């Protein structure tokens, strides 16, 4: 025992000495090198875009500081002057024990080039954290750093550890809630070594290919499609030298990670570290911008939330997740809904309604304006009678009276929308002309990173716009100023998939129909994937009936969790009931469940939300349940087609009252009555349930006895109807 303690003390001492010699460092890439944030990023670097009114890079730096990083090197290329000026004038220029140093280059056109330049500067002296400036997290780095160091002691080829998190993609869109494509990772479940990384599977074939040697060399492999790459990497110094030795490595994942995984000669290895309760996500497109903004407002990213980062004296958190600055001017008749942020100096007129939105600083919003699910940045003017739904409006925009933004619209800096003009859905509008169609996305991105083109465009915005806009003013109505960018051929799907707007119902229906057709072709010979994701060979042995039942229970457990996550997302993001029905239906098809399984899982999710919502008495709990059931009754009713299915809901409620939601036990009769009043349960279902319970054991009749008066009332009402 004493020897073990002495050995542990020695290891701690070694780690402390190493930390003293080499303070924990991080490389932060301020350039995304591939972005869907056009046209906004033509004028301002992505890391300085506001995320709930705070620049993205501030969240990243605040997390790195709290996680024990002492030295951060910020690499910037496009709009580098803006990034450097911001950091030099910010709090990060004078933080004790936390230094932020910028490295500027106008010649780097990729992440690979950036890391090669940093290697040449010889500023990294040990293990480091590699991250982009559009990453949001509150995780502790202690465990992942310790795992990385321990592996390195045993295996010098273990040069990188990737942080991942569970996040099952939508079975309809094959995308995560962040709008990223379905990601496949093959991982050794024992060692956590990453064996395969495929973010663009061959969907036309319906499968992905694994090298046979992986199966031969690893006794167990799990192929996951339910993991999210958090784009937080703990790296050894060899990573930088590998980029220097291989100029083909440009993209971090597409080239470097995949290159290492197929390289049999050098033998370098990448491992994974999965986080569970912590938060980590990258803003890769407008949908992830929307998702992460909502997560911040709902405080999943605590302590990195507006009232703490800005100071509680500047921002107050009110009921239903509303944030309001101290000097907001708000008309008495204006209504600020749940999960909304209103910034300093903003003025809001009569009868204006704002919900699930962010409004920045210094904005003037007129009367009778409707803003829903939108992001209004700073110094924006919105005149009377305007309507905005699921849009992004950048600094200095002016919307004349009666103007309308349809879902998915992006208005870049200082655009003017004319009076009564309706901007079509998914339009991108800018004072800058759209880059030519013949240029590829990568060429356009690299053009921004050059010192010439990028700076020229930025200079135009600092003074007068040097482009003649008169010929396109008609596009934005009378008095409108700006260009409406056209959607390139073949890119229409990307617009609604990556938008801040919910995916339209007609698109979801089409995707579901396409999925149904594709599923008929997915059965194949050879190796198959089990429900748990473990790769297994076909066998004539079908297993025992007990195993089948166990698998079935496991499947329902996973299914119930997926339905709950879908329901909560619908609640928090104000998703339409029809969209939620489609999502649950897709899960039903994916897990091969029946409608009654959907109904049970939805009801469970509703009651669980009622219990977890704030309440101090049984009457308040009942009110929670009533509000939730009233709002989402159509969703539950969509999966109840006959009396037997309604009885299953009652049995599910009994089970919850005995196990997971015991607080409802005393309210069983009232909730049963509520379900009847809302026409979710029919009279026949309740009476048949009561009849079936009559012959049960006394212990199984607890809730029947508590509901005797209500059941008797139903029976008497039925008899009166028969007499009539």
From TrEMBL:
Residues 434-462, 519-554 are annotated as: Disordered. Residues 553-724 form the W2 domain. Signal peptide: none annotated. Residues 540-549 have a biased composition (Acidic residues). Its main location: cytoplasm. SUPFAM superfamilies: ARM repeat, Nucleotide-diphospho-sugar transferases, Trimeric LpxA-like enzymes. It is found in: Cytoplasm, Cytosol. Belongs to the eIF-2B gamma/epsilon subunits family. Component of the translation initiation factor 2B (eIF2B) complex which is a heterodecamer of two sets of five different subunits: alpha, beta, gamma, delta and epsilon. Subunits alpha, beta and delta comprise a regulatory subcomplex and subunits epsilon and gamma comprise a catalytic subcomplex. Within the complex, the hexameric regulatory complex resides at the center, with the two heterodimeric catalytic subcomplexes bound on opposite sides. This is Translation initiation factor eIF2B subunit epsilon. The lineage of its organism: Eukaryota, Viridiplantae, Streptophyta, Embryophyta, Tracheophyta.
């Amino acid at each position: 025992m004493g020897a073990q303690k002495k050995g542990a003390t020695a290891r701690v001492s070694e780690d402390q000495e190493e930390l003293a010699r080499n303070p924990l460092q991080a490389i932060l890439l301020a350039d995304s090198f591939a972005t869907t944030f056009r046209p906004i990023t033509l004028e301002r670097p992505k890391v300085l875009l506001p995320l709930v009114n705070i620049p993205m890079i501030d969240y990243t730096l605040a997390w790195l500081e709290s996680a024990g990083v002492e030295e951060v090197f910020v690499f910037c290329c496009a709009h580098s002057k803006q990034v450097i000026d911001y950091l030099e004038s910010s709090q990060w220029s004078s933080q004790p024990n936390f230094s932020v140093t910028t490295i500027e280059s106008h010649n780097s056109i990729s992440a690979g080039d950036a890391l090669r330049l940093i290697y040449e500067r010889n500023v990294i002296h040990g293990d480091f954290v590699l991250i982009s400036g559009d990453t949001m997290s509150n995780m502790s780095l202690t465990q992942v750093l310790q795992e990385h160091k321990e592996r390195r002691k045993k295996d010098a080829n273990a040069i990188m550890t990737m942080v991942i998190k569970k996040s099952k993609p939508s079975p309809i869109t094959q995308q995560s809630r962040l709008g990223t494509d379905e990601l496949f990772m093959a991982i050794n479940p024992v060692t956590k070594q990453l064996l395969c990384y495929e973010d663009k599977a061959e969907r036309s074939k319906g499968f992905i290919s694994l090298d046979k040697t992986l199966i031969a060399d690893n006794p167990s492999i799990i192929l996951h499609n339910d993991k999210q790459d958090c784009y937080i990497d703990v790296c050894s110094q060899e990573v930088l030298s590998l980029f220097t030795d291989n100029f083909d490595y440009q993209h971090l994942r597409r080239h470097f990670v995949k290159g290492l995984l197929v390289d049999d000669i050098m033998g370098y290895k990448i491992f994974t570290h999965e986080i569970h309760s912590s938060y980590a996500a990258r803003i890769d497109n407008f949908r992830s911008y929307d998702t992460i903004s909502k997560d911040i407002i709902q405080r999943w990213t605590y302590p990195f939330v507006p009232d703490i980062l800005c100071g509680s004296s500047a921002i107050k958190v009110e009921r239903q997740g509303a944030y309001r600055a101290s000097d907001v001017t708000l008309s008495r008749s204006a209504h600020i809904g749940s999960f909304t942020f209103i910034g300093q100096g903003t003025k809001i007129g009569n009868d204006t309604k704002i919900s699930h939105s962010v409004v920045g600083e210094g904005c003037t919003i007129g009367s009778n304006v409707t803003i829903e699910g939108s992001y209004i940045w700073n110094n924006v003017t919105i005149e009377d009678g305007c309507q905005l739904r699921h849009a992004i409006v950048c600094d200095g925009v002016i919307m004349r009276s009666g103007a309308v933004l349809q879902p998915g619209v992006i208005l870049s800096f200082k655009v003017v929308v004319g009076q009564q003009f309706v901007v079509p859905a998914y339009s991108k509008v800018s004072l800058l002309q759209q880059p030519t169609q013949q240029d590829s996305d990568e060429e356009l991105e690299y053009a921004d990173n050059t010192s010439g083109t990028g700076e020229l465009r930025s200079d135009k915005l600092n003074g007068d716009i040097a482009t003649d806009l008169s010929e396109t003013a008609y596009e934005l109505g009378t008095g409108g100023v700006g260009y409406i960018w056209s959607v390139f051929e073949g890119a229409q799907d990307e617009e609604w998939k990556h938008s801040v707007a919910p995916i339209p119902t007609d698109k979801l229906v089409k995707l579901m129909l396409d999925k149904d057709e594709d599923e008929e072709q997915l059965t194949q010979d050879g190796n198959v994937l089990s429900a748990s994701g473990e790769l297994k060979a076909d066998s004539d042995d079908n297993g025992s009936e007990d195993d089948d039942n166990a698998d079935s229970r496991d499947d329902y457990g996973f299914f119930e969790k997926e339905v709950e996550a879908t329901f909560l997302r619908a609640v928090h993001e104000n998703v339409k009931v029809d969209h939620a029905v489609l999502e649950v239906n897709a899960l039903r098809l994916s897990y091969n469940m029946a409608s009654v399984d959907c109904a049970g899982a939805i009801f469970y999710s509703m009651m669980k939300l009622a219990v977890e919502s704030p309440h101090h008495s049984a009457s308040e709990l009942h009110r929670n349940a009533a509000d939730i059931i009233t709002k989402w009754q159509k969703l539950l009713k969509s999966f109840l087609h006959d009396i037997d299915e309604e009885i299953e809901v009652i049995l599910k409620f009994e089970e919850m009252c005995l196990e997971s939601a015991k607080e409802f036990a005393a309210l069983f009769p009232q909730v049963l009555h509520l379900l009847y009043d809302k026409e979710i349960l029919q009279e026949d279902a309740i009476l048949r349930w009561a009849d079936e319970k009559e012959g049960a054991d006394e212990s199984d009749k607890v809730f029947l006895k508590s509901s005797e008066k209500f059941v008797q009332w139903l029976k008497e009402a039925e008899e009166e109807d028969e007499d009539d």
